[in-house]
């Protein structure tokens, strides 16, 4: 797994990341423009929205996002805001502790 992460870090180019991020933003904006406030409890077609992105079809990514498939739209919108960021804050805390003890 560490070798895969290192390979991604070595081969990923900033321009590719920015292009991908822009495509994702456009897709999300398109999905959101079709939703009214009263539809937020409806189960989102997350799998359908991600289908346009070949990189999202890789097994590791598909496994990571499969929990989004049965959530209402409000859950899909809130989860990254809360859980994803919280996870990264935990990773930062662990890294800081490790660096301080070495």
Principal-axes geometry comes out as globular
Main β sheet profile: none
Structural class: mainly alpha
Give the count of structural domains.
1
What proportion strand?
under 5%
Task: Please provide the count of β strands.
Answer: 0
Termini separation comes to: 24 Å
- Residues in helix, %: 55-70%
Specify the number of helices: 5
Radius of gyration: 17 Å
Average of pLDDT: 85
Q: Catalogue the unreliable spans.
A: none
Order of helices and strands: HHHHH
Keywords:
mainly alpha; globular; 102 residues
Describe this structure in words.
With 102 residues, the protein is mainly α. The protein has one domain (2-101). Helices cover 70% and strands 0% of the residues. The chain contains 5 helices and no strands. The protein is globular. The model has no long low-confidence stretch (mean pLDDT 85).
Summarize the SSE layout with pairings.
Blueprint (H helix, E strand, L loop, with lengths): L1 H10 L2 H20 L12 H5 L8 H7 L7 H29 L1
